[in-house]
């Protein structure tokens, strides 16, 4: 492979690098949309952390390279690029190299990583080359942190950075308000709202989300109960637990934590849930009412409701704006589109079969993305000044984090923050608001049950 690389280098050394590299990248948008497998490992072998000129890939994957390197099968999925420059002046020259890649190195999704090397020679000419570091893709450079490149390089970091929409503190305020209402309820009628959660299996991320829900309930004074079932439990066991909560008058909201293990029929189970306690708002009756004008659903799904709250509380006008929702799932994308439409936005949907998603997205004033694909939305997908709500939460194993994993959003944050006017972080954006909305739905349900205004 090194031989091919050198041939190509000789042929291309005089060609202008950057425009070619980026236009090739741009004209191949499909390379940017690669769905990652679930729960990945961080093991990048040492060979990728050396910066030698040698680059025999240890295994075959997909890789696309630009600049002074050839498209080569490698362990890097997505794309990698490398480029060199030589700038000469009267008595010397400057040269250097950049290399980087996107998406995945040995299955590890990463933000755009860049290594930048720069050399100055006082006399004569020289060239910087990304050498084997290009050949090796950015696996070499995962240690160097997040890059800014191309047009993003030109902006100063502290200028034009988007406002960060702080979902965590917004949610804390909402939960405190709910707490106040719970006290009022308790003092007037001696009752408090109750939330029941059914958790099947041992997914670490689900356990964290449920733990966060319990903690929020405790803060607000909402009674929290949970049934934990084994991964291999039967449908009947789940339904029995559901039926018990359906009948229990001190439970006003029931949530079956998704995803369920594959052997369980989600639709069948959710159909058992009492409509008046379906605080997730997933039942077709709630969705139907959400979709039809002039009707009010009993419950609005928590995540899309949280997205709207984030926009409204950040003073982002929705009416008359172009909104793009990436994803069309029953629990996030579809209800988010319906809700935005209710708020009089003009809504486009982008999904896995959408052609030119970056073009559609780049016309949006508001982008809500819920695909579950890390780094799907790049800086150049966004209209300058757009507001970005990143719903995506993609867990990747990371032993350095307390829970053993960390979360990635759908948006390449470091790029988007230079283009957007406001953006939600992951974590700390939509997630906490989802929980606040769950509590709000539970409070509403209890108020309805006790006819308490
Ligand atoms: N922060 C929070 O509170 C919450 C976060 N989430 C997160 O949001 C994300 C989405 O969740 P959910 O809706 O349940 O996921 P689903 O997998 O059910 O749906 C994903 C949607 O994204 C679309 N999609 C997938 N890949 C692409 C792509 N490359 N380009 C464009 N569209 C794509 C799919 O299209 P198609 O329909 O064509 O397959 C589908 O409509 C996940 O990361 C999830 O963890 C979910 C709930 C709450
Ligand atoms: N029936 C059902 N209803 C849901 O609403 C539901 C579900 N199933 N299954 C999974 C998704 C996902 N979801 C999240 C909730 C909280 C955070 C959350 O608290 N996130 C924190 C970080 C959490 C962490 O540290 O891992 C944050 O973004 O700051 C994230 C995601 C609800 N969902």
Automatic annotation (TrEMBL):
Protein family: Belongs to the tetrahydrofolate dehydrogenase/cyclohydrolase family.
Keyword set, alphabetical order: Hydrolase, Multifunctional enzyme, NADP, One-carbon metabolism, Oxidoreductase, Photorespiration
Pathway as given in its UniProt record: One-carbon metabolism; tetrahydrofolate interconversion
Start and end residues of each Tetrahydrofolate dehydrogenase/cyclohydrolase NAD(P)-binding domain: 301-449
Listed Gene3D superfamilies: Leucine Dehydrogenase, chain A, domain 1, NAD(P)-binding Rossmann-like Domain
Lineage of the species this protein comes from: Eukaryota, Viridiplantae, Streptophyta, Embryophyta, Tracheophyta
GO biological process: photorespiration; tetrahydrofolate interconversion
Lineage: superkingdom: Eukaryota
GO CC annotation terms, alphabetical: cytosol
Function of the molecule: Catalyzes the oxidation of 5,10-methylenetetrahydrofolate to 5,10-methenyltetrahydrofolate and then the hydrolysis of 5,10-methenyltetrahydrofolate to 10-formyltetrahydrofolate.
Chain ranges of the Tetrahydrofolate dehydrogenase/cyclohydrolase catalytic domain: 165-280
Protein's name in the database: Uncharacterized protein
Catalytic function, reaction form: (6R)-5,10-methylene-5,6,7,8-tetrahydrofolate + NADP(+) = (6R)-5,10-methenyltetrahydrofolate + NADPH
MF terms in GO: methenyltetrahydrofolate cyclohydrolase activity; methylenetetrahydrofolate dehydrogenase (NADP+) activity
Known partners and oligomeric status: Homodimer.
Organism: Camellia sinensis var. sinensis (China tea)
One Pfam family recorded for the sequence: THF_DHG_CYH
